[in-house]
Structures
1.
Amino acid sequence: MTWSVADIPDLHGRVAVVTGANGGLGLETARALVRAGAHVLMAARDAAKATGAEADLRSTVPDASVEVVALDLASLASVRQAADDILAAHSTVDILVNNAGLMGIPQRTTEDGFEMQFGVNHLGHFALTAHLLPALLRAEAARVVTVTSTAHHMGRAMDPRNPHLAGRYGPWRAYGQSKLANYHFALGLQDRFAAAGTRAASLLAHPGLSNTELQATSVAETGGGRSQQFFHSLASRVGMTPADGALPQLRAATDPAAQGGQMYAPRFVNSGPPVRRPILRRLGLADAIDRLWEVSERETGVVLDVGAALAALEA
Ligand SMILES: NC(=O)c1ccc[n+]([C@@H]2O[C@H](COP(=O)([O-])OP(=O)(O)OC[C@H]3O[C@@H](n4cnc5c(N)ncnc54)[C@H](OP(=O)(O)O)[C@@H]3O)[C@@H](O)[C@H]2O)c1
């Protein structure tokens, strides 16, 4: 049986936050969640693009329950503000899809001085998830889905002494490192949810090769980089549609049979229906996760401690 959006259960009464919801996979994830009845917060950086995306979504789902939240993952202040806005309006968050991302761009830094791909793809999501913990833990059984990539296979575990790749930067090295960080983050978060005895779950998804703006942005940012052009051309010729590419993260977020610590991805690696895939690279996994946690807390100044957040809620 092939899983499709028709398998998404009724989500009325659920609150979902999707980062990077103003385009690509994020917009299609938001659209499918809204269609199933969820109230969706479209967290996005570019306000004009977000307004257009919201109008697009409403044109296909006229009774959509949706709102836009300003979120720039390249700014810890913006991440804090977005979380505060969400927490002020919603006591629970049932689904958080850590989807936004950048790929293969030249060396740049975030507002806080982080290497941009590590900063946006991982550190921003780390801080956002930490800030939203109270609402996630108040939900009956929240799901956090973090979007990685097959590129995590080429990623080297982050060096705690040089997480921002000073003197060692390469656009693909940085992307691989950030997507491996996504991988370790999701698995580490699941360990922490389980250790605290919560019903919240953390899952992974990767979309295979999808024809979104990811590749075009990397071509534009690098002024026509060769490898970036190769992936752009490949994605436009054989990539899945954004709606199909979003299916693994939708399945991870909503399939009642999916469980924490699992990963969903296209059956044929880069395309095909969303299926559960094994978690590989287990050697040294626990150490890599611990290192990532230490560095993420050190760099962001944000502590992600599920047990402490739970105790604070119960106090
Ligand atoms: N497409 C693929 O083949 C593929 C393959 C593997 C993994 N992925 C992953 O899938 C995820 C979604 O990518 P996509 O393919 O949908 O690409 P996309 O169309 O380029 O969308 C990326 C989204 O991330 C947002 N974003 C970028 N920087 C941000 C920031 N600083 N703060 C907040 N949002 C920011 C973008 O917003 P703006 O437009 O406002 O910048 C956009 O909404 C990414 O994590 C990517 O690594 C994609």
Note: The first strand starts at residue 15 and ends at 19.
2.
Amino acid sequence: MQIFLEKPNAVRLATLPPLALYVHVPWCVRKCPYCDFNSHERAGELPEREYVDRLLRDLEGLLPSVWGRPLVSVFIGGGTPSLFAPESIDRLLSGVRARMRLEPGAEVTLEANPGTVEAGRFAGFRQAGVNRISLGVQSFDDRMLAALGRIHGAVEARRAVDAAAASFDNVNLDLMYGLPGQTLEMAKADIEGAVRAGVPHVSAYQLTLEPNTVFWSRPPKLPEHDACADMQVMVEDALGAAGYEHYETSAFARPGRRCAHNLNYWQFGDYLGIGAGAHGKVSFPDRITRHARIKQPKEYLARDDTLAEQSVVAPKELPFEFMLNALRLVEGFPVTLFSDRAGLPAAMVEGPLASLEQEGLIERDWQRIRPSPRGRRFLNEALERFLAA
Ligand code: SF4
């Protein structure tokens, strides 16, 4: 009699994770000198109709891989999706709803640049079914905004926040700190500006110099490492004192206002990626796959098949990929989540977890595994342990 046993460490998922949708809109008014996203300066009219058609075709191509699975969230990011007319966003979201079921109350976020929106446009996005706005404010200080090459000033930033708040109760502000010429007091004033605006969510990122950006080839003088570390502590303290829960490395939310879409990434959920350069992750009972689309908008629009890559994630890469996301969560994750989402035995990560616990970089009990405050500061060092797991 022949018995076919499973290979050790084969991926087996008992249930599939929640599924989200990421939509990429790759155009901006102007390319910011620090930005390494797939964003391209627009030249003339945007091909909105053609692009929305293409997005929906991308989605259709993915449907056989996710039959019957509802969407828990949609995130329209970029780039600057707020450059699209509300009618285009309406056509996109109607098209999504016609092809897939959205969970009741699903979060639908649209990223907006304060230089591209006014009250009427926000109302239109709301009508189209968007229920959360993420505003790329970055700073409320004109000097900082100029240093960052942003297309808007502080007055426009404040006006955009007010206009967003008139149509949406769920608004995120993106802020940056560690900016050229910025002092601790200046960074604090930005955080206070966000708190005064009364938004329920703030994302605060330290400026980093990324390859293939203008800042990389011509680096501005940034505050010293210690000054940036002080700013990070200030951000956490000031937002904590104002009632925001620090729930992920850079994310702060009022109770009940955490970003469902990003939480799904950090909890190693699935997501479909449509649009130029979009990435996705789709799990099946016996494998976890990734896909990526053609990056260049022109080529993306011209080609019949927009998939640039698709691959099955090797089981040995899953511990690192899972921890890269889950260890960003301040409250960590349930002990069973690794097996549930990576489809691998918990024993595969027990060695690195035990050594990180001994060194005080993670804390755990029988229910949860979470990074310690020191572990959050040295996250990259902690993650390296899982490369070889
Ligand atoms: S607006 Fe945002 S996406 Fe566009 S170039 Fe600037 S940072 Fe990048």
Note: The mean pLDDT is 95.
